[in-house]
Design a protein that fits this description.
Two copies of one chain form a homodimer. By secondary structure, chain A is of the alpha/beta class. The first copy, chain A, has helices at residues 14-25, 42-55, 68-72, 102-117, 139-152, 170-179, 202-214, and strands spanning 5-9, 29-36, 60-65, 121-123, 160-162.
Chain lengths: 223, 223
């Protein structure tokens, strides 16, 4: 029987890799979508995206340039004049790496593509816990977006966003990934560097803490 | 007193011109956003956008390339292999000029920009009547999108989409435009041509019928 098609948003990071493994385990054919929004680490992320596409034998892949988000600005991920904030995992403030409304931009593109290729699901590896400062990473945002899809696409179209790891902690995500044999060594989380992960930025700190709590060794090298 | 800032989505067409005039009449400072999504008539639309920006003395303007929508395809507006459908104003089928989920893509960009420049409103000249086939032109879509903005932006951010002509007929829009002295001769609606409007495509047919019903002469030339 022909499998349904699911798009996975694949940044090339740990979360999107584990999300891909979950989508595969739910018996979907996969199509991978990667966004280049002018981030510092684009080169390495794209390399991981291509490695992961090969690993998961995707039916389709699409890389979309959304560097207009850099033009719009307002974030250290896209504006080289704003320094990357060093990790402060206790804060609830919105970090400077915030690209305003980024996930809505990404999901809108994913839905357009889903409607064209006939995908039924859009998987995104958003995690509430480690991105509590990002308003567009919370479950109620994705629920509201599902309503927008319902009202804004053709009547016969049924596309839904799936956020399978949204309530997981990073150590749980590491464990799920290992259980599903996800290729975690082909992922990149560092916000700052393209060769050896810095180990210091928010994203590295979260990842390293996750592996430590899970009692596992992170397979990628750090500076 | 300092005026609030409103973004207006300005394609360069009749509807966006009249919407700009309405936003101005509501005492907002204006910022204009134009999207180039690879449509056939981009050259002429951009010319109108610039003329209208000058006329309305905008505080900021931004042109964003979203030609990835062309890459995603599925529409005669962006895919030169699909012929433009000739007007059939009676049909309720979704026309071939449909770009899947286009308005969600456009609004997501507008919200990102609004958050950066501090705009309170996003005006869009969507009209239910003449675009009944486009799911993302209906009022319930915009209402759902306002919920996505509410959940997906910073808590202190208050941005709302305004659709002031959504329930108007084209002849009413023409009349409002004339009453507000909107520069209708600096607009372009044709889907097909860049120099002289074809007069035959859906968009020309709707516009011409609107002017005729309003008892007014369309100030632009037709083939």
């Amino acid at each position: 029987m022909k499998k349904d098609l699911a798009i996975v948003l694949v940044s090339g990071g740990l979360d999107s890799c584990v999300t891909s493994a979950i989508a595969e385990s739910q018996n979907y054919d996969l199509a991978f979508l990667h966004l280049n929004y002018g981030q510092r680490t684009e080169k390495k992320e794209l390399e991981c995206f291509n490695d992961l596409s090969e690993h998961f034998k995707v039916k389709a892949k699409l890389v979309v340039d959304v560097s207009h988000l850099a033009k719009i600005g307002g974030s250290s991920l896209t504006d080289s004049a704003i320094p990357v904030t060093e990790a402060n995992l206790e804060t609830t403030e919105i970090p400077s790496s915030y690209v305003p409304f980024r996930n809505a931009n990404i999901l809108a593109i994913a839905v357009s593509w889903a409607e064209v290729i006939g995908a039924k699901k859009i998987f995104i590896g958003a995690v509430e816990e480690d991105s509590s400062g990002y308003p567009d990473c919370r479950e109620n945002f994705f629920q509201a977006f599902n309503q927008v899809i319902e009202t804004g696409t053709k009547p016969e179209t049924k596309i839904q966003i799936e956020t399978p790891i949204i309530h997981n902690t990073k150590d749980e995500i590491v464990k799920i990934g290992i259980e599903l044999k996800a290729p975690l060594k082909k992922t990149w989380s560092c916000y700052s560097e393209n060769e050896i992960a810095c180990g210091k930025c928010d994203s590295c700190a979260l990842r390293l803490r996750g592996f430590a709590k899970a009692g596992e060794k992170d397979p990628i090298p750090y500076a």
